[in-house]
């Protein structure tokens, strides 16, 4: 499949597979398999047009901007070297691009055989290929839109929107036939005149057109005797014929576990089809085990996915064998985890035992441990913790288990720790002490320190010595992430009377730490009270709370806190937008300095937008502003809710552990979501961990930027957004 700027994407794992495990947050299920690197600001892979093609953004020049018509070509008309190639159109570049696939685990890697050129590129700027078809005679048909202009006027600079050629070609269109020189057209039999028996012979034809047409005609009927003959084809035909016979039987509604068994016995793609079509109860653990010795990574991944069709008690052996042999492949690991629901503990213990004395797949073990901590009865989780502490994988397993327990919310962590046997409590305390030392070692990688800090803070954060060490890390550590993590842990472990310690020395604290504390305070009344005390005393600037946070605090259930918030945070609520825009129009639209504007952007916009390589890709791409006037930009900045792209409406997500996050949902699979937070941080949340998702109906970009950007600075910012591409001195400034 493709989209405008991703010309070759593979759906490696289907959403239905990961949906089987509600505790799994799978992240992305698509792989960009093309070898070309993407361009700046999400522009597509490199292409090599020979026409005078242009795009409204010079960032996208020479890149895929309108990829479409993906076709896996199997005809003979282009010569043997092109059979199996995948072609993609780009009408903007007046070209057709070719990639050749190579297996890579559960997915593929791809590379174009034409380095520095294209399979087909035209100087004719009316050549607008939009779709591809394999012709009956084996040649390639290109459907050409034949238009002078394909850009929509809405995305053009204002001065070009009334150009006379916008509609030229709307009554035209062309179909091109491409065939290699010297290759004769394949003979095309009239399948419509053939009987059922003869059509079945074409299910194994080399030509995809012949196979597909025979399949369609057989499916359309009549069906008398077809099922019996297809069943025979499944045992006697070529591998290709068997593959299509099996899918045709399924399309005809034939559901027979004996056919699945026969398909599995054959291995290869036929077995993959059998696994895909099997229903719960149609396969056995022995059958799946038998397949693992007869194929590579791809078949192993498919077997892992099919294991969820086994009874829960029979999955462990199959999944463990795959995990030990191929679990390092991220797609196979995901497939194992998708099928592990209900047997996480058994699988985890099997893998830990099998990897004794050697390093196992840390990512797989940690995730299994997390799911165990999240789902097992607390007593069982405690037993597993004892096993983890004595294993050679304690660093991985204990962190995963503790994380899972914390995600239950409420008093789960306290109940869990209180219910541990005395010996396990002592071992955990010793482990926590060692982890606290790891957390304080600035020479270790950040990821390892964060993990250690989380474990130490969760199991012993309320103890004076531990909380004192975390407070020191929050205020002094050179790693911003470590500081923010320490603040979050202190907020969760300090007793109510000590929450005010998080607000002490506020003005000397890093913005990331302040933001973490303010986000947590929205769900912790004692911490919110401490912050409001700081606002009242002048120690916490009211401007540190934006309108989004202020509105949430004003709606707190605690009426006393809500009342104080309304009184103290009134300045956070932005003034009516029309009046603010009117105040800015004179100064903000006059002149401005792009270099000064770059600094304004870095301070106020870079947390959500990326321009000129600086910032985060959270909000929409605002780098291509040549189609927007200064007045339009001023309105977008000061009134971000006036017109919101639906993809960037902020969502408030509450998880079962009581945490509230506000961000943009970037993707969803099987009920799990990928949430992008305002600072660009990405969180994958499992379906089972989400309590509520509520749309705010507003942009993630806050109103009220007039509080931090003066009219003069706004003029600089607008000039930067208009002219940033000219600051390198290489691109001529318009009009100069």
Beta-strand percentage range: 5-15%
Mean pLDDT: 87
As a whole number of angstroms, the C-alpha radius of gyration is 30 Å
Tally of strands: 17
Give the N-terminus to C-terminus distance in angstroms. Answer: 44 Å
Structural class label? alpha+beta
Short description:
This protein is 42% helix and 12% strand.
Please explain how this structure is put together:
- The chain is of the alpha+beta class.
- Helix content is 42%, strand content 12%.
- It is built from 28 helices and 17 strands.
- Strands 3, 4, 5, 6 and 7 form a 5-stranded antiparallel β-sheet that branches. The protein has a 5-stranded antiparallel β-sheet with strand order 16-15-14-13-17.
- A hairpin with a 2-residue loop joins strand 11 (610-611) and strand 12 (614-615).
- The longest helix is centred in the middle third of the chain and has 18 residues, at 422-439.
